[in-house]
Design a protein that fits this description.
Blueprint lengths: L1 E7 L4 H10 L6 E8 L6 H6 L4 E3 L8 H13 L5 E4 L8 H7 L3 E5 L11 H7 L4 E8 L9 E8 L6 H25 L10
Parallel strand pairs: 1-2, 1-4, 2-3, 4-5
Antiparallel strand pairs: 5-6, 6-7
Helix pairs in contact: 1-6, 3-4
GO molecular function: phosphoribosylglycinamide formyltransferase activity
Family: Belongs to the GART family.
Organism: Amnibacterium flavum
Length: 196
């Protein structure tokens, strides 16, 4: 059984979907903990499913590296096979990558490498794109630049707003993330092939 720790920064709607998936007996992974870089409302989802939570507040440290060291210590305590960034709105420092890569994956609301960065949905609309997408990637030291494990196109309707498009993308993101985790657990995806 694949042991997963999920890291969030906000409301955790994708996290809740993953928690629901992990409840099914045939899902080959279990979420052993959910962590955040701030007091995040998404932690309540974990509590609803009786999953332990932790917070490593970014603002409590003098540098990214010190925060990263504390995060490494916390993550190591859960002996996770996989770390999932689900709405974690912070680049991980190198010391976290050194400790866990390539066992860190992330979802992104675009068809990477198109529209990387924190405003992917807004950027796609501003560009007048007819479609964007959802991606699941291996996290590396760049901004949404790691190897793509799965991605799918999502149509943008004329005049569609950012919130509506984000909701449409999240539906695809959730499905892709669950499938990627399943594929990692069953060996269909071998993360060691992505070792830097």
């Amino acid at each position: 059984m694949l042991k997963v720790v999920v890291l969030i920064s906000g409301g955790g709607s994708n996290l809740r979907s993953l928690l629901e998936q992990a409840e099914h007996a045939d899902f080959p992974a279990r979420i052993v903990a959910v962590g955040a870089d701030r007091e995040a409302t998404g932690l309540f989802h974990a509590q609803d499913f009786r999953v332990p939570t932790f917070t490593v507040p970014y603002g409590s440290f003098d540098s990214r590296e010190e925060w990263g060291a504390a995060l490494v210590t916390q993550l190591a305590g859960w002996s996770a096979d996989l770390i999932v960034l689900s709405g974690m709105m912070r680049l991980l420092p190198q010391n976290v990558l050194d400790a866990f890569a390539p066992r860190i994956i992330n979802t992104h609301p675009a068809y990477l490498p198109e529209f990387p960065g924190a405003h992917a949905v807004r950027d796609a609309i501003a560009a007048g794109a007819a479609q964007t997408g959802a991606s699941v990637i291996v996290v590396d030291s760049g901004v949404d630049s790691g190897p793509v494990l799965a991605r799918e196109r999502v149509a943008i309707d004329p005049g569609m707003g950012e919130d509506a498009l984000h909701d449409r993308i999240k539906t695809v993101e959730r499905r892709l993330l669950a499938q990627v985790i399943r594929d990692i657990a069953t060996g269909a995806i071998r993360l060691e092939e992505y070792q830097a």
